[in-house]
Amino acid sequence: MESALLMTTTLAIRNAFFPSKMCIAKCSFPPPRCLCNTGFAVDPSNSSSCVDFDECLEHTNSCQQRCVNSPGSFRCDCQEGYTVSREDPAACVPIEEEQR
Known about the structure:
Layout lengths: L1 H16 L8 E3 L4 E3 L4 E4 L2 E7 L13 E5 L2 E5 L4 E3 L7 E3 H4 L2
Antiparallel strand pairs: 1-2, 3-4, 5-6, 7-8
């Protein structure tokens, strides 16, 4: 019962502040604004939707060699002859060293 009341109240508040928009992720009050899940940012051209935040392009990753963006996240990759370290997923080690 409490959950249904909370959802109804949230929808009523959201509709009051965003009558023609609907936040894709979450709403925050006050002030009324949309919030996105980790790895996403509010779309500058449509403040009620979220777009992927490219951690590789924005250099917010710690990858030693290469960064591969994915929706909401990223992973580190290595150049030929290297592999991602088992101990540190941001580091690359020579393939021969990792096989020991």
